Amino acid sequence: MLRINNLTKSFGDYVVLDKLNWQVGDGQVIGLIGSNGAGKSTLLRCIASVYSFSGAISYNGEHVDLQKDKLFFVSDEPFYFNRFSTYDMKKFYRSFYSRFSEETYQRLLEVFHFDEKKPIDKLSKGLKRQSALILGISCKPELLLMDESFDGLDPMMRLKLKREIIRLVEEEGISVIISSHNIRELEDICDGMALLENKQIIFTQTLEELNHNYHKVQLGYAEAPGPELFRGQDLLFKEQNNKVVTVIYRGSGLRETIEASKPILINPLPISMEEIFVVEMESRQNEK
C-alpha cells in the first residue's frame, strides 16, 4: 500500500503540490491524469525519492527511501550513462535490485525484438523508452511508476507493453501508476483513475465507480425547450440542437428532474474517461 500524507513540493516560491493526500492499494493499475503543468511528473518523482519534499510518503508502512529496491520509476526522460548500452544498464541495475530477473530480461528482449548492445544515446525516443521499460520490468518492482511511458511507442509496442503490465499485475500482484495525457490509452488497462488538479488529488475512483457515477443522456422533446431547461441544476454539460438535448451529470439526483421535463425520448449514451475528464475540468474552471 502506497500512502501519501500532506505532501508539499515547491520550486522556489512556486508550489506545485500542496498538502496532497493519496493512497494506492496493492495489485492495482491506476491512471494519473491532469492538465499540463498539474504536477503529475513531480508527484511521481517525489514518490520515487528523486525530489525532496515535505510531508510523508510510505510504502507498506516504511518511508519510500527505505523501499527503493521495491520501486522503479520509468521517467519521461529515461536515465542512462553516456555510451552505455541496455546491457550495460542491466548490470548497473542488477547491483541495486535484488529481485532482478535475467529470465524476464531475456524474454522481454525477444518480445520487443530489442538489440541490448546498441548504445542508448544512438536510439530513437521510442527505443529509449523500450530500453527503460525492459529494465524496469526486469527489476521486478512491487510498485512501478510510469511517466508518459506510452509516448513514442508504435501501436504494436503499446499493445505488447499493456500485455506485460497486465501479466505483472495478475501473476505478481504489483501496483502500477501510469501518468499520461492520452486518457483513452489508459482506459483498457487501468483499474481506476486519479485526477490531479489545483495541487491536489481531486478524486480517485475505479472505472466501475466512474461508469456508475457519471451519466450521459440524450433527450428528445416534442417541442424545442427553452433555455430555462435544467437551469440551476448540477449539470456538468448541456448541449441543445433544436428538440434534442444532451446532458452529462454525476450521481443520480437529476433523474427525477429529467423525467419531470417530459421528454419523448430518453437515450442513455456511453461516456468515455476522456469526456469525464474534460467536463470535470471545465466545470471546476467555471466555478473559479
Structure described in brief:
The chain has 288 residues and is α/β, with parallel strands linked by helices. It is 32% helix and 30% strand. Helix 3 packs antiparallel against helix 4.
Biggest sheet strand line-up: 6-7-8-3-9-10
Count of helices?
Answer: 9
Structural class: alpha/beta
Using the alpha-carbon principal axes, give the shape.
elongated
Largest sheet properties: 6 strands, mixed
Return the average pLDDT rounded to an integer: 91
* Proportion of beta-strand residues: 25-35%
Number of strands: 14
Query: Architecture of the largest domain, according to CATH?
Result: 3-Layer(aba) Sandwich
C-alpha end-to-end distance? 34 Å
What is the CATH superfamily of the largest domain? P-loop containing nucleotide triphosphate hydrolases
Unreliable stretches (pLDDT < 50, length at least 5) are: none
Order of helix and strand elements from N to C terminus: EEEHEEEHHHEHEHEEHEEEHEH
| The CATH top-level class label of the largest domain | Alpha Beta
Cα gyration radius (Å): 22 Å
Question: How much helix, percentage-wise, in residues?
Answer: 25-40%
As an assembly, this protein is single chain
Number of domains: 2
CATH topology of the largest domain: Rossmann fold
